[in-house]
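Exercise 7b. Backbone tokens:
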């Protein structure tokens, strides 16, 4: 009995104890508090964006907990720890694409450094201690939309040229280092879908999808991993988490690839991806899906037969509006090619939860933490825009859609504005003013985001004006 009590208290202690790396640095957890402290103390802010499901983050945290690093950051910076799921707005404002993501602001809140991934201890120390860190413009080069036709022609040409610079002819994909590329190989499924719909770069897109299947699809449990590090491709190192957003996007890409080629493998994998999501990320209590299955290199590096004997990694704890809204759209597209009513029922149940439990008439909460029974990130424009677009596909939700979209008087984020334009077109309305005069950042970290804008411009020009399509 005494042994059982000891075991119980040990487990309780281990569950509540903070990680070593968190205690090694006096992290602030509130952005505004950190900025005020930085101004008072005349120190820059060291912001670390982490994610609980991210295996690369665990590697980075080992480096941050090293004595030299932790002491240097604690002494010379105001350290700020943020989790992406709860701070998606800030993450994207700073150009975040993946985790770990590090940002350094000077005491005047100006961005002076940012990078994705990890650096070795000496590299990180050298970068943080370098005199006069090279300024990086947060906004980057911009293009102002004044004439829709000229804007569409310019942005489409720019987009295609940028994609060709980013394209990796060996491993596929459009995230190779280019104008704003990264060493990680991420799928860009909405870019694939957009290009296939317009018969652009078809050979490159299909090759990229095939390589994503080869490198990122899990043949044992199903589902697509988030990325792998192309600089370490010879060791087959990959990020061993699987996010809802990546898998929802891949369903959209695979159904479009099937429509284009009639290759059964694409439709079969789209269905398998849906099965994976139902098995690992579906949350019965809400009818929606959790945002990721957590990373576990130890599990995924086992031989397939050994993995089948082990318990797979659990899901994370967040239901995210934006990602679920994208999945609902993906499930509607999947249903066009596989007439299984269960797929539509799944989409409808999730939509019911989002509109009734996370929208109270005055606020749309961007996430729900199932562990702490907590809602957060109210009225974030991307959550509103994604959900509005999805609701616009359902005639019975027209009133709810209009109430939700009215929560934001102005959509400054170009992706959100583009989605809202598309959603209004599904409702039979034309809202050109949402894009008129908007400045488009040309250093976008994710090509997928540009596809929403190009689609919205096509709608405003009256081209390809098919209802309910993001591509």
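Sequence design result:
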């Amino acid at each position: 009995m005494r042994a059982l009590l000891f075991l119980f208290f040990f487990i309780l202690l281990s569950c509540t104890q903070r990680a070593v790396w968190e205690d090694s640095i006096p992290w602030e957890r509130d952005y505004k508090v950190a900025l005020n402290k930085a101004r008072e103390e005349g120190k820059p802010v060291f912001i670390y964006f982490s994610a609980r499901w991210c295996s690369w983050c665990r590697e980075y945290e080992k480096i941050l907990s090293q004595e030299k690093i932790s002491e240097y950051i604690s002494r010379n910076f105001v350290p700020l720890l943020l989790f992406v799921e709860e701070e998606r707005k800030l993450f994207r404002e700073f150009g975040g694409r993946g985790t770990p993501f590090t940002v350094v602001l000077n005491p005047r809140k100006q961005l002076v450094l940012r990078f994705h991934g990890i650096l070795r201890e000496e590299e990180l120390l050298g970068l943080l201690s370098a005199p006069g860190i090279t300024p990086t413009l947060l906004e980057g080069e911009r293009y102002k939309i004044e004439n829709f036709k000229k804007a569409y022609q310019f942005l489409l040409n720019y987009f295609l040229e940028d994609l060709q610079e980013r394209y990796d002819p060996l491993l596929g994909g459009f995230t190779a280092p280019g104008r704003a590329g990264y060493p990680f190989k991420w799928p860009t499924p909405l870019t694939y879908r957009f290009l296939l719909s317009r018969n652009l770069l078809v050979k490159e897109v299909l090759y990229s999808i095939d390589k994503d299947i080869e490198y990122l699809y899990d043949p044992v449990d199903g589902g697509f991993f988030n990325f792998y590090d192309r600089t370490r491709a010879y060791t087959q190192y990959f990020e061993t988490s699987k996010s809802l957003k990546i898998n929802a996007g891949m369903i959209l890409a695979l159904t479009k690839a099937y429509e284009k080629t009639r290759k059964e493998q694409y439709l079969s994998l789209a269905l398998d991806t849906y099965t994976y999501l139902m098995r690992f990320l579906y949350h019965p209590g809400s009818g929606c899906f959790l945002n990721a299955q957590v990373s576990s290199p130890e599990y995924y590096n086992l031989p397939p037969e050994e993995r089948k004997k082990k318990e797979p990694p659990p899901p994370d704890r967040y239901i995210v509006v934006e990602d679920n809204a994208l999945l609902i759209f993906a499930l509607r597209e999947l249903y066009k090619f596989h007439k299984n009513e269960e797929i539509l029922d799944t989409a409808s149940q999730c939509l019911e939860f989002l509109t009734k439990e996370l929208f109270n008439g005055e606020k749309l909460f961007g996430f729900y933490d199932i562990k702490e029974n907590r809602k957060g990130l109210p009225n974030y424009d991307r959550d509103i825009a994604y959900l509005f677009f999805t609701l616009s596909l359902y005639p019975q939700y027209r009133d709810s859609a209009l109430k939700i979209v009215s929560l934001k008087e102005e959509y400054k984020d170009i992706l959100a504005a583009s989605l809202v334009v598309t959603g209004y077109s599904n409702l039979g309305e034309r809202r050109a003013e949402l894009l008129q005069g908007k400045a488009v950042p040309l250093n976008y970290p994710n090509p997928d985001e540009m596809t929403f804008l190009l689609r919205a411009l096509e709608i405003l020009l009256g081209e390809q004006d098919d209802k309910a399509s993001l591509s």
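Instructor comment: Residues 20-129 form a domain with the Glutaredoxin fold (CATH 3.40.30.10). DSSP finds 20 helices and 16 strands in the chain.
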